[in-house]
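Ligand-bound model needed. calcium ion.
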Amino acid sequence: SMKRNGGRGALLFIDIDDFKVVNDELGHDVGDIVLQTVSERLRNSIRSSDTLGRYGGDEFLLIIENIFEFDEVFLVIQKLRDQFSLPVDINGTLLKITFSIGVAMVPDDGHDARSLIDVADKAMYAVKQNGKDGFDFVKKEHSVISNEYFRIQRSTKEALKNQAFEIVYQPQFSIRDGRVTGAEALLRCTDDSIKNLPINKIIKVAEESGVIHDIGQFVLETVSRQLAEWRDISVTPIRISINLSRKEISDARFEAMMRHEIRERKVNPEEIEFEITESTLMDNTQRARNNIESLRSAGFQFSIDDFGTGYSSLSNLKEYNLDKLKIDKSFIDALPADENDQAIVSATISMAKKLGLRVVAEGVETSTQDALLKTLECDEVQGYFYSHPVHPGEMTQMLMARNA
Ligand code: C2E
Ligand code: CA
Ligand code: CA
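Prediction:
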């Protein structure tokens, strides 16, 4: 059935560690109970579209369909290992069960069952030799990345627990008079083990493991609190943009969380704008649509981020009723020298205006870029030429100066 789904997926060769010892020392009856329990717990950790089978004595094959990136396999393996975090109770004897798992990716590592099982078996064997209780891919580069992935994921969870996340603000400016018009909230992690990683890498891992929902909540609460603080000290509020990942905007809990924030912290929806990337918007799930729709009617603004990197059409944009469009940094980089990019930026600005969208240029680093954007009648700018992202205290200073 892999064929039916365009033939992408993964085959996992799962072997119980030290099963022979269990059988030899505790007897075959206990061995049978172990196998039965293992099979039940494995079944509990898979989706209905996955296929699980007994292969040999203590070996199982798991076929996962519709996997496009090999790191999605991590999620499955993780769920599977979670099922076995508690020991198996056999008539009062507690047994901790671990596995060695070899992974073959379809079609990268083979096309037919026979050869896929063979390579996954070899990868599994490598895990046994490396001390068991783990998994390995057929291709070495996948293993390197997967270990990195788990490291980042562990550190991210730790960082959340230790409150090692913070928000910095990058102000946006009106290109005509240079006044601050708003600011983008950007996540930073101060945890030693991952603080040098680019934040979008941490976000990507968080998205895949589901931690993104806790991160999103943290961002939202921090920004709401910040807005309340500014209100308390009577600085004229600016609009803060919050980045939303694909997982967040497609989540059922998201809208409820927003409603909660409005109630609890007296958030004024007009002071918050959500940035969703062009590619997220094009994914176009019904849930995402509904979330955007109802948040917009509650008064929140929406902008389309990284514009130009996806494949949206004019009609798509119109349909969504957005407020703002952010031209991706990659188009600004080669300005003013690159004539193609200049043409693209110019066309984007006039198109956006026809649709009634404000336009922000991202990643403006030089005065010549700034001058050209002014000529092209871009509305707002954000970039190192104006300001790097700054800590909350500095942002407050900037706003107080603006009020004076
Ligand atoms: P983004 O939304 O496109 O954010 C703009 C990025 O460009 C930021 O990187 C910002 O520091 C950087 N930048 C701004 N001006 C310049 C410039 O003039 N030159 C250069 N070279 N860079 C500039 P940052 O903070 O590392 O964020 C990277 C990405 O991580 C963001 O891209 C966004 O996709 C994601 N991200 C950051 N914070 C959050 C968050 O709270 N939630 C979610 N879901 N994603 C976030
Ligand atoms: Ca953004
Ligand atoms: Ca962007």
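The CA atoms of residues 358 and 373 lie 13 Å apart.
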